[in-house]
Amino acid sequence: MRAIRATDNGLILDTAAGAPTLSPGEGLVRPILVGVSRADIDIAKGRSGFRGIIGHEFVGVLEELLPAPDAALAAVERATKLRGKRVVGSMTIACGKCDMCKAGLPTHCRQRAMMGIMGRDGCFAERFAIPLSNLHAVPDAIPDEQAVFAEPLAAAAHARSMFRVEGKPFITVLGDGRMGLLTVQVMARLNASVRLLGRHPEKFGLCERWSIKHRHIDEVGRRQDQDVVVDCTGTPEGLELAMALVRPRGKIILRTSSMAPASGGPAPATPWGRAVDLSPIVHNEVDLIGAHAGSIAEALTILTRKDVLVEPLITRKVRLESAIEAITMPNAIKTLIAM
Ligand SMILES: [Zn+2]
Fold first, then answer.
1. What does the CA dihedral 339, 155, 335, 124 come to, rounded to 10 degrees?
2. How far apart are CA 267 and CA 280, in angstroms?
3. Residue 281 half-sphere exposure, CB side, CA atoms within 13 Å?
4. What integer pLDDT is reported at residue 272 of this predicted model?
């Protein structure tokens, strides 16, 4: 089978990858479309120690399943109904036994692996194995090109669950990459005054079409008047701007922790690249909140309702044999790979 593999010499198209074997509780998925994420680009650029098959955003068909012998009857019935159906799924492989898993927080599992990122092969392959409990059926009304966004959309929607909307708050989303453009659409459905700050006029065109306010990041006052700032830049500059924009006792939600420096150039030694003065957090009593993985089921609901438009974010669609070149091509909002 063919797969995109991270090696010591960078990404390769492995044409002789071994077919995955199923462990109890897992299913075998044939991906239809996979999405390139920021994590994949970081791996491609050598900013991660991960070695193995990359990728964690997919829509595919569940071909085979091997229910665990001790699985509850309801879980086996649920999984059996998914056979032959289109599925999407969470990338976190949880142990199911630790205190976080028992508390219903599998994305914080103490022994977790993450598909294509940490400790587990990913989905940029002709077949891959995944726990059955990670999978969700895709409603017929959602085409493949939308369903493949389930995982990043779940993450974007998760930021919304981090604060309560009271009155009509002012919300700023920083960054006009794929995560910023998903997050701002989620926020725009709230009873709030929402704007996106970015640097790329071509992406403002999308906000224009969606009737979402937008400004160039260098053109805004730093008046500390925003109730919530969602930083999707993953840069020290983004966090510093967020601290300048948020009101005292407001909230900053960090949506990404990419290792990419804002200005390009070599990878920094630490995720933030340099020290950031966090004293405004203390002086202004700001809540600094991390938001990571969200609910795939919620993402599917959002797509069904057409609350967020994802297809305009697709910059290009390539076949597996052209994937490596496409993964690091600049100026992409979203690259999809047809398997
Ligand atoms: Zn666990």
1. -30
2. 27
3. 13
4. 55
| Residues with a beta carbon under 5 angstroms from ion ligand 1 | 94-95, 98, 101, 109
Query: Whose structure tokens read 């089921």?
Result: 297
What is the CA(16)–ligand 1 centre distance, in A?
Answer: 33
Centroid of ligand 1 to alpha carbon of 322 (angstroms)? 37
CATH of domain 163-290: 3.40.50.720
Cα-to-centroid distance, 95 and ligand 1 (Å): 4
Looking from the CA of 33 toward its CB, the CA atoms found within 13 Å total 19
Amino acid at site 249: R
Distance of CA 42 to the CA centre of its chain: 13
Check whether 260 has a pLDDT greater than 70.
Answer: no
The pTM of the whole model exceeds 0.85: yes
Establish whether domains 3-153+293-338 and 163-290 are of one fold.
no
CA gap 208, 214 in Å, rounded: 8
Architecture of domain 3-153+293-338: Alpha-Beta Complex (3.90)
Q: Could you tell me the residue ranges of all domains in the chain?
A: 3-153+293-338, 163-290
| 17 CA distance to ligand 1 middle (Å) | 29
Q: Residue 221 — very low, low, confident or very high, per pLDDT cuts 50/70/90?
A: confident
Q: What are phi and psi for residue 96, nearest 5 degrees?
A: 80, 0
Res 234 pLDDT > 90: no
Q: How far apart are the CA of 97 and the centre of ligand 1, in A?
A: 5
Distance 93 CA to ligand 1 centre (A): 9
| 309: CB partners within 8 A, 6+ apart | 185, 210
Cα 301 from chain centroid (whole Å): 17
pLDDT of res. 82: 97
